[in-house]
Amino acid sequence: GPLARLRITLFPTSPATETVPGFAHLLGDFLGLPAIFPAIGIGLVFIATALASRQIRSNPMIVFWGTVVGFAIVTGWVGTSLVASHGFAPLPVVSHTFSRPLGETMLYVMTSSGRSLSFGVGSVAGVVVGAFIGSLIKGHFRWEACEDPRELKRQITGAAMMGVGAVVALGCTVGQGLSAFSVLAFSAPVTMVAIFAGASIGLRQLISGFMPAE
Q: What residue numbers bound the domain in which 191 lies?
């Protein structure tokens, strides 16, 4: 796309390696252990940190749905790995993300005869259908629209900024925050810090605005 040159400049491509760069591999090399052992240790620390919160422990539904989301990410990696290992065509091993797949889905809808289905397209379709069914079951489905031109301008500007950010960061809150974090990639915490910073600035602007101190 038009931002490809910027992305390549900021994140130059490198030859594929046998190992995925991540914290587990870094610690494994440092300690002289297989990457699986640091990965399990870091995962247990994350789980213990989450369960240390009384609010999370007191609400079993948070634990349940958090487990479901984690399982969905893991099955994405496992499923595409099995297809890549036993399929007839070379396919990338990926999990859920919604930056590039959204564009792929729109292109597939417009030119389905010239493109093939992919994991990303199926993931987007599954989320849309699942969200629609869930909203009907919960009775939360409703149509929404912008109230005035000012709101429309804010929505378009925010969507454009999120789209550009997702392309430059090579992932969104799902792609980097869940899928990349699940393999302890170096890019995940950097992207999440930027996402939280942007959300904090945006919320401050929406709630109080950036007015000069009197």
A: 147-207
